[in-house]
Structure prediction request, 340 residues.
Amino acid sequence: MKDGQFITMGIESSCDETAIAIVADGRKVRSNIISSQIAVHKVFGGVVPEIASRHHLNNINSVYQKALDEAGVTMEDVDLIGVTCGPGLVGALLIGLAHAKAVAFATGKPLVGVHHIQGHISSNYVAFEDLEPPFMALVVSGGHTCIVDVKDYNSFEVLGQTRDDAVGEAFDKVARVLGLGYPGGPLIDKLAKEGNPHAIEFPRVFLEKDSLDFSFSGIKTGVLNYLNGQRQKGLSVCEADVAASFQQAVMDVIVAKTIRAAKTRRQKRIVVAGGVAANSRLREMLGDACQKEGIRMYCPPPILCTDNGVMIACAAYYKYQAGMTSDFTLDAFPNLPLEA
Ligand code: KG4
Ligand code: ZN
Prediction:
């Protein structure tokens, strides 16, 4: 049932989650179906793009039906279809895109292509009903690390981004060398609670004086060198200390740069988004730093941090409100820039 609401369907398939959600009036979750492929990719220690595409194809019809059923609506009730069109794995993106275009064509409903990062930022509008732009956003995930000045619902300025690995990627790689499993972020987060964050001094890479860019490949090598050094000397390794010290070094840099960005732009609100936003140490450290500076921090619940269809539906809603729609030439863009 529609209940007089504006109903948006959001479709996300940019990496290893086939996710479709129904959202009412841009911010109210009616259903949020996520089919995760973590178990499939675990044996390979990371996402295998072609396997991901195949699983999206196998799963998307049942995820679509479940999203409608759980929301208690039919396609007739849906007013808008939003779909991630980039960045991401091109084969994975194409499955969601083909599904969205087919449904839009068959039903005559409008279609909107959504940037994955705009989606992550928008998950906060769902979590915090009064939140409106402008604000500073920190987007930290398996594929992205950036600080974004969000000027309006559809207007962004990227102030800094990673020059090599994304922060989630660094967590996953360090977890792998520690033999923890995949995805590594939540496992490091958990193990770090038992370790000493100051036991090992891993490098903090701040780059040039005023730069808001990041680099995480050095710390990844730092952890590897430390482990090899200990083993060569026949010394034992305390995995919990390594996890805690790595996490501390990464978050020291992220928190410092995010606070600097907010202060430079005189922003009193910082919004955190992306899978790594679920990290408990990040929430703690950024929360403390924000409190000291009189800044309010927003961070969605973990289910809205990792990839989902709700965030895509919400972003699509605000694009549609601004008169932005896509036609059937909409394509997948693996390196889509946010500011375009
Ligand atoms: O946003 P997301 O689901 O996918 C991308 O768009 O990349 O983020 C997935 C990433 C993975 O690298 C995962 O290890 C990381 O988020 N992650 C975490 C935590 N939970 C998920 N990293 C650190 N601490 C966590 N608690
Ligand atoms: Zn993501």
Notes: The chain has two domains: 7-123+305-321, 133-299. The mean pLDDT is 95. The two ends are 37 Å apart (CA to CA).
